[in-house]
Design the sequence.
């Protein structure tokens, strides 16, 4: 029984050594597996760089062939024919005019011109419409004032004219705004 107990101890010791060796190899394989994503990223970076360099090389070879062809044509024809080697590329965005600046400049100029025109028309008008204007202009006191007497037809005509002026102005603003938005979106 002692010999069997001793044999079991030896076998347990051997199994413990085997277990340690298996754990060591397992940790070694685990560390290799952990490095796999890093290596894959490095490989992808190298592959991407290789593809870019391959494309650059192909472009250079193509340009060299075009250059050799152009040189041989020029030698054969003695420079009589003009050939466009690299066609011009069209711009993606127009460089001028800057629509936003142009629109804001037009808006500002229109407002300034409108205010100046209104001031000029007001200064040009020599009529007095209220009693206070007459008192402010002349030192002599106002003795009698004649009120504005309008017939009902004249009042309707005046109110109709005001409504039409406001409607025309509003319609003009809406048309100009719509045209600007259309031009801005389609250019």
Sequence:
């Amino acid at each position: 029984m002692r010999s069997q107990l001793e044999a079991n101890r030896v076998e347990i010791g051997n199994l413990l050594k085997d277990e340690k060796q298996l754990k060591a190899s397992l940790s070694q394989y685990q560390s290799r597996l952990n490095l796999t994503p890093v290596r894959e990223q490095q490989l992808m970076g190298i592959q991407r760089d290789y593809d870019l360099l391959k494309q650059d090389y192909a472009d250079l070879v193509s340009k060299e062939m075009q250059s050799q062809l152009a040189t041989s044509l020029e030698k054969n024809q003695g420079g009589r024919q003009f050939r466009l080697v690299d066609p011009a590329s069209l711009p993606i965005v127009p460089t001028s005019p800057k629509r936003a600046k142009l629109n804001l400049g037009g808006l500002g100029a229109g407002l300034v011109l409108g205010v100046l025109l209104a001031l000029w028309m007001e200064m040009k008008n020599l009529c007095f419409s209220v009693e206070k204007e007459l008192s402010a202009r002349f030192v002599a006191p106002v003795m009698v004032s004649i009120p504005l007497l309008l017939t009902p037809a004249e009042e309707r005509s005046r109110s109709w004219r005001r409504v039409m002026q406001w409607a025309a102005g509003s319609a003009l603003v809406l048309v100009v705004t719509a045209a600007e938005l259309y031009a801005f979106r389609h250019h």
Notes: The first helix runs from residue 2 to 77. The radius of gyration is 47 Å. The mean pLDDT is 85.
